[in-house]
Amino acid sequence: MQIQLKPNLGLVPRGQPNLLVTPNPDLESYNAHVARVDQTINDKHKFFVNFARSNRYQTNGLGLGLADYLAAGHPEASTSYTHWRINHLATVTLTSTLTPSLISTARISWNRHQFAIHPYSFGYDPAALGFSPSLVGQVQAKSFPVIHIGGFSPLGRAGDTLNFSDTWSVGESLSKAVGAHTIKFGGDARVMFNNQSNPSGFATFNFALNETRANPLVAASTSGDGLASLLLGYPNSLSSGYVNQAAQGQRYYSVFVQDDWRVTKNLTLNLGLRWDYESPVTDRFDHLVNGFNTTATTRLGSANGPTVRGGLLFADSSHRLPYKRDLNNFGPRAGYAYRIGPKLVIRGRWGMTFAPTADVATTTGFSYATSPAASLSNTGIIPITKPNCSGAACGMLSNPFPDGILPAPGRSQGLLTNVGQSVSYVYGQRTVPFLHSFSTGVQYELPFRSVVEVSYSGSRSRQLSTSRNMNGITAEQYLANGANLTETTVPNPFGGLLPGSSLNGATMTLLQSLLPYPQFTSVTETNRSIGTAAYNAVLIRLEKRLSAGLTVLFTGTFSKSKTFTTYQNNGIDPIGQFITRDGGIPPWQYNLASTYSLPFFKQSRGLTKSMLGGWQVSGIFSVFPGGLIGIGGANSTGIDPALAEPSYNRWFNTCTINNNTAKRQNCASESEPVAWTIQKPFTLITTPEPEWSSVRARVPAEFNFSLFKSFQIREGFRAEFRTEAFNAFNTPRFANPTNSATSSQFGIVTLAQANAPRSLQLSLRVSF
């Protein structure tokens, strides 16, 4: 078989592509259909049925040269894919007047979301390229191989995806009027399924320059070519994998009661209680990790192999849950509204709510990649030699997997699953996060149909999810050994027993040998529910209600947020010893929204008034600061890095002292104060880094605009035309400045647009 796209450019510099494919359209269509039927059964019962379907379909998927691959008759070699997102929704709602003071609303609904990415490479039989049929028979899914060639565009695409997410829901709400009380009570039950099919395909091959260089161990710009390595059949690396096919399920139940009590004509109280239950996410085939055993021991390699402690635990038919149920989620709430005078009202509320989480445990062991280890023996003759491989085809493309493509081991290896690599698990006692939210404020009516409101709102979050590396050394070990942790090696008891991992050599670092579970590179515990957060804000709101065709709404928010979920030295600090971090919410934000009915052609008649009169314009203007800029590779000296006149070439003070060389770098002058310090390796940082609110990313003001009009075609038949412009002034937002103190671009903003350009949207809505 021959797959060829001919060069269409003349001589180009070495390493540059000589194939240019333009235009390269990416077509994307979207359609949506909504239908609703209302039916009155009798004077006490009525119902409506609602159905909706939408489909977003993409036919190129950002691929390169799809049209040329199609013309050549080999679309499977392209990197393109088709992509669709299909949604179905069906709802039936029945409203019944059971008594003059009791109303029932019952609902049942179904929602399905289908998400698919289907590369053109899938479905192709790689045996047609000369690969062994017996090898192809071992793969999870047939596809054209993904081929990366150094200095050239790739061939093929990995990862076929077809996911179905279904939600079934039933709910009942009752409303009862009793004197000054309006009591609402009811419940909700949902069943959610998520089925994923995402095989990785046949295999991925990487062909680099090294294998055809004069000396594969020495980099050189004048020798070596990725295409030559491919033609000779020398892969630099390769892999073929099995990906777990998830079949997840979850349940949600809730009941509630609320009493709206009109105490006096000026005072209303709202009292309520809600119970929520969100079940752990399970898998139909029990392909989940459900914990880590810290005490159990086993032998590695054989009955006489080294003893190791600790390992993953797995769900099974008797123990399906990856973490415990959380059943005590009772959320009370209370609110009040008091009218002090004819124009002044004070309101307040407090409530305890539980956040949805849908925490999914890892599926370690049920996904697996066969990646034959490479060595540099036989350099210059056969650059790469695979273990257990001999003969003329050793290490060649014609025999890429000498030991075959291995399926995922699942739970069969028990405590030895993923030894030599990293593992993670969900904390078994994980609970659902909750928050106390509260607010109070006053509203005052002003002239010209206007109202002003000033309020305070806050929240205190508890039981937030945190993660920690449980395979770390102690602070005492860190300080006592310093650089010796990585510079000193010791005999490796696992040498030769962990092929394909970084722990298979004859020696290991002192650091690795001191870990609680040295057979793993890291052991991460997630979802330990001990984090907290706090939020406080003041809101100013000014609204001019509709008069003379004009409405205006201004809001200004001044807030402060912080979280306690981050470790200063992950894996070393004690569990729960968090540092204070910014919550990521802008400290201030201003929004101005307005709608105006254009007065033109009001007095006109006939077609002129119908077409040119009655238009309305609206706009939303938002101003807020960018996010904090975190610095990597250096620590603050305590000097505020803000500059009086920042520029894109130097957004903040980048002056740095390197303690390894005792030299200054990235300084504007010899007298500029040092803002950052590059510490020597294995310097334990005990003081949390300050977060400089004075140094933030640039965010320009946002303005969105719309022009719209309603047309009354005839009685019961109405249409609305709307045109909208998002980012109406096409104002670019650039990426954050480079935040790595060891980079030559430290503090420089790359002038590449990071936000969406101006987008125009036209729509027509017909109602009848």
Helix content: under 10%
Distance between the termini: 59 Å
- Count of alpha and pi helical runs: 7
Number of strands: 34
Strand content: 35-45%
Stretches where pLDDT falls below 50 for ≥5 residues? 376-384
Q: How large is the radius of gyration?
A: 32 Å
What is the typical, i.e. mean, pLDDT?
Answer: 90
Instruction: Assign the structural class, choosing from mainly alpha, mainly beta, alpha/beta, alpha+beta, or little secondary structure.
Output: mainly beta
Overall shape: it is: globular
Q: In this structure, how is the largest beta sheet organized?
A: 22 strands, mixed
Can you lay out the helices and strands and say which pair or pack?
Blueprint lengths: L27 E13 L4 E14 L7 H7 L8 E19 L2 E18 L13 H4 L9 E4 L11 E18 L2 E17 L6 E4 L18 H7 L4 E6 L4 E16 L4 E12 L3 E2 L5 E11 L7 E8 L14 E11 L4 E11 L13 E3 L51 E5 L7 E13 L3 E20 L5 H7 L2 H4 L1 E3 L15 E3 H5 L7 E26 L2 E18 L10 E5 L5 E10 L8 H7 L3 E8 L11 E2 L19 E3 L4 E3 L10 E3 L23 E13 L2 E10 L32 E9 L1
Parallel strand pairs: 5-8, 18-23, 29-31
Antiparallel strand pairs: 1-2, 2-3, 3-4, 4-6, 6-7, 7-10, 8-9, 9-17, 10-11, 10-12, 11-15, 13-14, 15-16, 16-19, 19-20, 20-23, 21-22, 23-24, 24-25, 24-26, 26-27, 27-32, 28-31, 29-30, 32-33, 33-34
Give a structural overview:
There is one protein chain. The chain has 768 residues and is mainly beta. 5% of the residues lie in helices and 44% in strands. The protein has 7 helices and 34 strands. It has a 22-stranded mixed β-sheet that branches. The protein has a 4-stranded mixed β-sheet with strand order 5-8-9-17. It is globular and about 85 Å long. The two termini are 59 Å apart. The model is unreliable at 376-384 (pLDDT under 50).
